[in-house]
Design brief:
InterPro entries: AB_hydrolase_fold, Peptidase_S10, Ser_caboxypep_his_AS, Ser_caboxypep_ser_AS. This protein has 16 helices and 17 strands.
């Protein structure tokens, strides 16, 4: 290596390191984080030596915000996991706080101050480093300087993530040799394989740097196919929400049956299902609406309007800590699963938090967990997971898992979608265990594909069964059988 090249590489590392924000502790957390946290935007300062890597969308000035949490084990050799969130532009802070990150919100009555955090003992950072990315643009703290940059969809946002991955590894060359995995849940389920394909194509084309891509995983994934919702009624019937009588009255096109999908498609095309579906849909929806969709055993919480004490707390925060408060979420009961969502609004919109995370001023006036109001445009132009693409990626390890108490994307549909790939079975359906008890059920196929259920898991399985999910993920990413 020439002296000039060595100096150039050294300058690259120095300048890249200069743009990193290392966070030793987070606002509201008593004590230090268990491992290094880095936050920021993938952006290198312009210099006379390096090209000005600025954004993932140069035309509109869009930038993606990320949280990088190093492994609590050996970050030098442990895998790196790139994690995407599902939902309507939902911030990846949901995954970090509620699912697989090293901290959680303390559940206690909100008093107008900064919500407290606690250590999460079942974080996936026990076995891997994780890059949590706010994607697409407009989710969380990701932003666009030009409003046109918010007009994205499945394809364009995935291509921006490809740029993100490339630029992140340019700035973090020390992790290039670590095994790289891509993961996500819910709606991200159909984006993850497409992203893996695009990263793989860049690798084959010789685009530098080359990450050590090994595989991908999706939890309670949306496939984008009708099978996701076709299995809701059969699932609800199977768990006793819909009666035998009502289920038997439902037309065949509302029944999920692997043996007659072609017949059902023909009935739908001929319009013979429409009148029958209309007559029974409202009854089924009313019954299914009696349970919490994300986990049928949890309290069914209806968001309520803010109480008087919320307004008082809001005024205090507005004056002392938060800049704006236009989309204050309703306050659910404290024993609701959604109460931490409410607390996260005040934590993320605190000026103390923003200063700690180094959020760029003037970019995101108000953080919201999800764009539930649909204020920003988004196109679902990818349609569904392309089975041919999925099969083409068979040289990577792949993992699909489902919480078995999820009625939003029931495991019945995901399991059937996996079976439709017609992969040979290597290890047939069996229980997998933690502490000597069944923690779910699993099947392993050829082409390095594993499917598993998590007993007691919901739509975001790690949120409801963190200990079991950590055991499951740790075994899979170590290439061990569940």
């Amino acid at each position: 290596m020439s002296v000039r090249l060595a100096c150039l590489l050294l300058c690259c590392r120095i300048l890249a390191a200069a743009d990193r924000t290392n966070v030793a502790t987070l606002p509201g957390l008593d004590g230090a984080l268990p491992s290094r946290l880095e936050t920021g935007y993938v952006r290198r300062r312009p210099s006379v030596i390096l090209p000005p890597y600025v954004t993932v969308d140069e035309e509109h000035g869009a930038e993606l915000f990320y949280y990088f949490v190093e492994s609590e084990g050996d970050p030098g050799t442990d895998p790196v996991l790139l994690w995407l969130n599902g939902g309507n532009r939902c911030s990846v802070l949901s995954a970090l706080f509620f699912e697989i990150g090293p901290v959680k919100l303390v559940i206690e009555p909100y008093n107008g101050g900064l919500p407290r955090l606690r250590y999460h003992p079942y974080s996936w950072t026990k076995v891997t480093s994780i890059i949590f990315v706010d994607s697409p643009v407009g989710a969380g703290f990701s932003f666009s300087r030009d409003p046109g940059g918010y007009n994205v969809g499945d394809v364009s946002s995935t291509l921006q993530l490809v740029k993100f991955v490339n630029k992140w590894f340019v700035e973090h060359p020390e992790f290039l040799a670590n095994p790289l995995y891509v993961g996500g849940e819910s709606y991200a389920g159909k984006l993850v394989p497409f992203l893996v394909q695009k990263i793989s194509e860049d690798t084959e084309a010789g685009v530098k740097p080359v990450p050590n891509l090994k595989g991908y995983l999706v939890g309670n994934p949306s496939t984008g196919e009708s099978i996701d919702h076709d299995t809701v009624v059969p699932y609800a019937h199977g768990v006793g929400i819909i009666s035998d009588q009502l289920y038997e009255l439902s037309p065949s096109c509302m029944h999920f049956d692997r043996r007659n999908q072609d017949d059902i498609g023909e009935l739908r095309e001929r319009g013979l299902c429409q009148s029958q579906e209309r007559n029974l849909r409202s009854s089924n929806e009313q019954l299914i609406g009696e349970v919490w969709g994300a986990h049928i055993l949890y309290k069914n919480c209806i968001d309520a309007s803010p109480k008087p004490d919320d307004a008082t707390a809001g005024r205090k925060i507005l004056k002392e800590e938060i800049v704006v408060q236009n989309r204050l979420p309703p306050r659910p009961a404290m024993d609701c699963q959604t109460y931490p969502n409410y607390l996260s609004y005040f934590w993320a919109n605190s000026n103390i938090t923003r200063e700690t995370l180094r959020i760029k001023k003037g970019t995101v006036d108000e953080w919201v967990r999800c764009d539930d109001d649909g204020l920003l445009p988004y196109s679902g132009d990818l349609g569904s997971i392309n089975k041919r693409l999925f099969i083409q990626l068979n040289y990577y390890f792949s993992f699909m898992y489902s919480g078995d108490h999820d009625s939003i994307v029931p495991f019945l549909g995901t399991q059937a979608w996996v079976r439709s790939l017609n992969y040979p079975i290597l290890d047939d359906w069996r229980a997998w265990h933690t502490d000597g008890q069944s923690a779910g059920f699993t099947v392993t196929y050829a082409n390095s594909l594993t499917f598993a259920t998590i007993k007691g898991g919901g739509h975001t399985a790690p949120e409801y069964q963190p200990e079991r999910c950590l055991a499951m993920f740790g075994r899979w990413i170590s290439e061990k059988p569940l």
